[in-house]
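Predict the assembly for these two chains.
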Amino acid sequence: MDRRDFLTAASSSRKKVVPFSPYQGARVLSGILPYAGAWTATEVLHLLRRTMFGATKADVDFFVGMSMNQAVDYLLNVPAAAPAPPVKTYNNSPTPGDPDAAIPLGSTWVNINTTDGGIEGQRRQNFKNWWFGLMLNQERNIREKLVIFWHNHFATETQEIARGIWCYQNNAVIRKNVLGNFKAFVKDISLDTGMLRYLNGYLNTKAAPDENYARELLELFTVGKGMDNASAPFTEPDVLAAARVLTGWQVNGTTNTATFTLNRHDITNKQFSSFFSNTQITGRNTTTAGDLELNDLLTMIFNTNEVSLNICRKLYRFFVYYEIDAATEANVIEPLAVIFRSNNYELKPVISALFKSEHFFDVLNQGCVIKTPLDGIVGMCREFKVQFPVATDYTGNYFMWQYLQGIANNQQMNIGDPPNVAGWAVYYQRPQFHEIWINSDTLPKRNQFTDTMGAAGYTRSGKNIKIDHTLFASSMPDPGNPNALVSDSIKYLLTLPLTQASRDQIKKDILLSGQTTDAYWTTAWNTFISTPGNMANTTIVKTRLASLYQYLMRLAEYQLS
Amino acid sequence: MKRKEFLRNTVAGAILPTVINGFSLKSFAAGSPLAKLLGTTGTDNDHVLVIIQLQGGNDGLNMVIPIDTYSNYFNARSNVAIAEPKILRLSGNDKTGLHPAMTGLQAMYNEGKLGVVQSVGYPQPDFSHFRATDIWMSASDSNQVLVNGWGGRYLDYEYPNFPTGYPSTSMPDPLGIQIGSVTSLVFQGPSVSMGMSISNPTSFYNLISGVEDPAPNTLAGKELKYIRQVAKQTSQYADVVKDAALNVTAQNPYPTPNPLADQLKIVARLVKGGLKTKIYMVSYGGFDTHSLQTTTTDTSTGTHANLLKNVSDAIKAFQDDLKFLGVEERVMGLTFSEFGRRIKSNSSTGTDHGAAAPLFIFGSNAKQMVHGTNPAIPAVVTVSDNIPMQYDFRSVYASMLQDWLCVKNTDLQQIMLKNFQNIPLVKASACNPSVPNTGGTTLIDNYPNPFDRGTTIRFTTAGGHTLVQVMNTLGQVITTPIDREYPTAGTYTVFWDSRQLSTGVYYARFQNGAVQHVRTMMKVGQ
């Protein structure tokens, strides 16, 4: 009798412990061998939904003509150039003498300090708007998805960082490193102004080491806490020793750079535990001590296998599925970790191997990720080609981006301000993981948003954003055929095909208004194309399409990616 | 069939609709004469528990301050220590006081509506926010990963098979409610989450229903089922929550801006509005005070003072509102944070992650007392010294389950997974007779002390299960010399061989039923 049986037997019959019933469906046993199966719209959609935000039919057409290898390579070819920085859209501070006042509207603020707390607040919001705009205007590559991945991994909060320039710099460090060398990335982030501020690195001195950054460096950013996320292999003294290595760094508020001050640095030797092979980092007494000892620390950390395993698990949980069972650990995580280590922690080979694997394209791994609020919001805007103000109208665009950023916040994904340094709970909290996104508060909000965008949309300063359903329908291969229109719309919007009975029901109830004659729809659509000025007919088409797409986006299937 | 179950199945289900003409019981105040007459509420189980989570690791030592060992307290953290004259005094207790910002809770203590539990923690404390929070929410051992929460296990015990068959006639309301948008691990039951999240009880958005294809037997199908289930639950409970909220048209004032008060105001409204929901959870963040915990000029002001003021003001306003609404007798609450902070402050006017910390039990049924003694603070404190645990946090949960939510002692272990000592947190009248107060009696000591190679620990048990643990200053249990049943009361000794251990301070923790004491021991060179 095991312990649970014992407990159950000892109790009254009414109050029984209901056994946990794990997933009992088909298991995914495939590994990281290159995928060699079919390459159709289905597989392209799967790849695009996971590596970008949403997928349009034009995107699918673009990639379906390539091979799978070419498509993944294309998506992983991220431009080296940083995007243009955010521009000022806010009003000047009433405080006299603030240097911010010299910045004209439409010019960037990221190189000029402000002395006004209110302006800092404006800048932080402006930064988030800009970031949201980059996601909406993403090109056909993985960059924006990886920026979110790394923002979740190296989580910081703009509320804590406070200074807008440092928030921007933190984001720029992430953008620079999304597909670079992970070890170099960790070094950059360790000396990032935003991170130094966020995890108190700037307060870490020999007199009173502040363990905040050192702890998260080990616990979250590199080594992690093992497969169960609860058994840290390093020790408490390791945390303290790492904190001592990192003493002496500060942020220069004038130049907005990290600086090292020797007399704040602990120059004694730092001893680590057997997990780190009893490494001793030699304390140094020179102006380059901080840099050299940080290098030593990273070398020591990256000599453990745990770093590669931890990062591969996080990539997996973000891009494939949250559950890592023993088979996945052995067939996917461990081989990926080997690739990661043998390529000296370059990110591109390991991420490329993941997306080209038969495991990634395994039919059992398709459609099983619950969309993040960003997938939902940015993806919907892209799928429906929601029209924003012209690019030169930066004020109008920033307003729209701010609205959408606020919607994502309401749905519990406030970019720039994740809940805490561990990032969003959906990526680590057992047993629900991604399911945490969906609850009785957020699901209605998701529905409410898609409903709103399909109806009145959002209007500010005379500009409006909303879904034009006819644009989407027009992009389908055969919109005049109601059967094809329903099937194709489902194919591009949902990850699971509905049954024929459901499709017929939807077609009949919505497109045919309860009738059975397909030609009714065909006539209406053809009239709409030939005579859009026929307002009665155009209204017929538009209201039915609005109902169709509202209905599809209200289905639980729409929340999957 | 048990009486409670009989009432659930018959009174609410069969009699009510005909007797009161279609109005559901929830339309009536829980304490109304009609409701009491009908017997479905006002029985042994109309109690409500409110859990307040203080996120980030609250500095308990500046919240509940030792007056009798003030000089050691001050020496350990002079840059953040509260000046002695500013400490708020508690009626009938000259040893322990509250942070000066907590006038509301001081008043509640003095009115007999607040209890303080000293040094609550667990063996082998974890210093990571995320792991420690999980431990508190799941009520697991430090080295054990539980995937469900203690609240979820309780609700699963009380309402088996949820969500199948719910809402039901006897339980038409959500079992647990979290104010906010994310349901926490606390409510996670053995298979599904037992709680629902609401951020605004009057503005639910109703889902439409339509055709539903069978979910495939794949991972995608698993997630699809989950989303559909949430969709159904949302629409099922939306109306009852909204109706309950709309039943209440006047409330006592709450302080504003105060994020915690905003949440507690909703809770009071839903309780008064007639929801039978057993557990409410609210949370308030910002307690991770690594730096600038206080202002440098006046340590009674600053970030932590503001946080504590909001906590104190919110709970006081909540209590006053419950009284105003006439449901004061039905509600108790407890606070918790994932850990306390280090005894010694750091030089950035802050405190780093620590171990045990005090928590509050509040409500008109809370016992007015400080459970346990002030934490022992060494005269010379090192940076890694932590407050040793006096009470396991699971004892607090177990006591509230048994003495407030009236879970039978024989069933407690199902929920808590182990046997934990009972602490007399609740007035005896609520469910259970009281436990004798042993404050002031020495139940454990050791000789010689200081010692080198070993020491004899002497303890006095009243009989029954008795535990003696030795902990180091990190709060870690090093050894458990005694963990056994004694058939009779008596004084016993056990020798502890300490040759393998380094010199320094150790604690012997004694636990016997509801009673516990901690003895400080000093090992010197051998």
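The radius of gyration of chain A is 26 Å. The first helix of chain A runs from residue 3 to 9.
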